[in-house]
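Input (structure):
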């Protein structure tokens, strides 16, 4: 667990140092920093790089959490099925169907799409980074 926190801390440090480079004055030029990039290119690199790093971190972490959640839900489901099979409990499936309305699922999907399309370059690089981090985790 400590390894994951150190990876996240490293990613935050890298992102902060990239932001600090813009704030630094042009007085002292470090090796490799003598190349002046246009503001548009800097913005694109920061947006895509930041989105990719954030997406990778979230994807990697989410896969680890999803594995644990799948284990807990699986054990819970098997336990409930075992209890129902042996008639210790009775499950009212009709009541469960009426509890979850269909409108909430549609509303969640439309709100997710509006969030993903708000800042498209960042979202695109975030999705790519998320996919890479999820595969790695």
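Output (sequence):
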């Amino acid at each position: 667990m400590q390894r994951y926190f150190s990876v996240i801390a490293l990613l935050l440090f890298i992102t902060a140092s990239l932001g600090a480079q813009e704030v630094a004055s042009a007085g002292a030029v470090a090796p490799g920093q003598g190349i002046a990039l246009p503001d548009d290119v800097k913005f694109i690199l920061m947006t895509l790089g930041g989105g990719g790093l954030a997406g990778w971190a979230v994807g990697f972490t989410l896969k680890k959490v999803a594995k644990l959640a799948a284990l807990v839900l699986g054990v819970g489901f098997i336990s409930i099925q075992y209890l129902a099979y042996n008639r210790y409990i009775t499950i009212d499936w009709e009541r469960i169907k009426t509890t979850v309305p269909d409108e909430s699922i549609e509303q969640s999907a439309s709100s997710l799409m509006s969030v993903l399309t708000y800042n498209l370059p960042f979202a695109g690089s975030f999705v790519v980074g998320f996919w890479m981090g999820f595969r790695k985790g």
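Notes: The helical segments are 2-23, 39-85, 93-99, 102-116, 120-136. The radius of gyration is 23 Å.
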